[in-house]
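Board work, copied verbatim: Divergent AAA domain protein
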Amino acid sequence: MYLEEIINDLQLESDKVECKSRLNRDDVVGWLKSIAGFANASGGDFYIGVEDKTNRLIGFERTEADNERNYFNNQVNEHLIPRPKMKIFFVRYEMKGHERFIIRIQIPESVVRPVILKYKNIPSIYMRRDGFTNGATYEEIIDMSVKSKNTQYDILDSDRKYEAGDFNTLREFYASHNDGKVLTEKALRSMGFYNEAGTLANGALLFADDYQEKKTEVQCSVFSGFNKGSERIVTINRFCGNIISAINYMMEFVIQRMNHSLIKLGESRKNVDAYPRRALFEGVINAVAHRDYFLDGTQIQVDMFRNRLEISSPGGFYRGEKLGKTYDLSGIISKRRNELISAVLVSCNVMEAAGTGFDKIIEEYREADETHRPYIYSSSDHFTLTLPDLTYEEGIAESNIPILTFVPVPNGTDYDGKVLAFCYFLAHKASEIAEYLEISDSTYFRKQILQNLVQNGYLEADKVSRAVYYRTNPDMVLLN
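↓ predict structure ↓
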């Protein structure tokens, strides 16, 4: 028997059909790239249990078909980012009186593109053209990115239906921050929590009581000293749960471990927490609201050091510039990456309807001196808020410089090690580096020292507005 005998709408000459007798376990990329290619193009049908070229039915017994489908799903989940929206069917037929099945997978054009195939940590982008799947061209990648740039993870439809009883944690959180008021179905519907068919949005799913997947994963750590590389890790905990539980977990982790002291602030003395709770809460909420939920295998990181707390969230500022170290938190304007998640947090009265909430952090630190000022910085793949420990008298001094080991830089200078150490944790402008080195910000300094480090891959230069910030490439040095 042949495929066209059991599939009524099959177009044999179409370039949107591909068949495999079995999924090759030894060449996973060979067939995964077809799935990615269909998703990056205009979609297609992928059949398993059908001989390629001839379309002759090979088929499976029911148990075999189940195993093949499960293997397919596992490989797609592990290697395709984001996972394409697909429909998987068993198509039944009879051969010599015996029941047989083939697997039909319908792959639509992905709303979010490009779909990336990542195998052995090597990412690749494929495109389906004229019946063949090949690597996408530079122009195709740009076109895919432009067409999907307005798509947000949290507003896309999930595969789960809304059930009111699945969101008790969210309702309790809402009531606790709104004087006991009830979160109504009308409010949820108006935010786009679920659609007319009752299907939850991706962002809504992250609030479900039973959510345990890694989209919301957080990692909380305590270090004995000033940096990660050369200091002992006292505690490292990981947590997966719904968004509200993740917020509560991060808050409790820090509150249970932070210091308390009687310190002098200006002309007065008072009992203070290492991290003002309102500032801590704003930092946690900001990390959750602006996290890039498309990025799999990442987590929000809460790192406690001897003199500071760092809260890092996956994804740079949404459609914003990279930021070097800046203390002007009130001047930061970040567009929302997650409209639904932000809307839910606003309705819960824990997030500002406009802005980032950084003004509250500034207010909590208003009496602190220069060495205890909070700051923020961002790169293309994460942003980090740093809250100084108010009980640590010395504050955050630039003397906390790591010790690095690296292969000597071609045509290098005696300043290379100091520059790389100074720029390892935070990006700095040329003038700041020159001041740290106690040399003039000269043409020689910029060309023979900084530019040489950039050209040899030891430093990375990022332009922010009119300024250039330099950051050490961690792949080129070893943190002792």
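The chain is about 30% helix and 25% strand.
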